[in-house]
Amino acid sequence: MNKNQCTNHLSLRSTTGAIDTLRITVDGKEHELQELAQISRKNPKTIVVNMIAFPQTIPDVLKALEKSGMNLNPQQDGTTLFIPIPKVTKEHREKLSKNAKNLFTKYRDTIKDIQNNSIKKLKKQTDISKDDMFSVQNQLTAVADQYIAEADKILQTKQKELIGDS
């Protein structure tokens, strides 16, 4: 699990940094929002996203903001999006904690898929002895388990922070 993703997308306070790196899919290609717009703070409670350079991407940006799990409700005025920063409520904390768990699950499944695909490729090789194959398989499993354990640690820390049990 990427620590920066946890910090940015699962923080109690929505920051311009979290929105900067939000992934936007436009015509099948992914871009960060900061590549498509100017992002600034109007005041402590509002983020302004100026879409003048790529106004055709506004629907994609709105969709990505909605799916981000950051509890954002942007208001559009022409090519400008005003994003009020939500108050931190117990429900918001719980939703972020759930999003953290979902993110962890996604990363865990990705790691397991990579592990399983590597083992399948390994088993197809005929020039490796059974002992070596078993050894490499155990190493792959150990590395995958290590990454999953590290991601789980990040998840536990993040959930404590979000729920307020730090």
TrEMBL record:
This is Ribosome-recycling factor, mitochondrial. Residues 3-162 form the Ribosome recycling factor domain. Belongs to the RRF family. GO terms for cellular component: mitochondrion. The keyword Protein biosynthesis applies. It holds the Pfam family RRF. InterPro entries: Ribosome_recyc_fac, Ribosome_recyc_fac_dom, RRF_sf. It comes from Stomoxys calcitrans. The keyword Manganese does not apply. The lineage of its organism: Eukaryota, Metazoa, Ecdysozoa, Arthropoda, Hexapoda. GO terms for biological process: translation. It comes from the Eukaryota. GO terms for molecular function: ribosomal large subunit binding. Keywords: Protein biosynthesis.
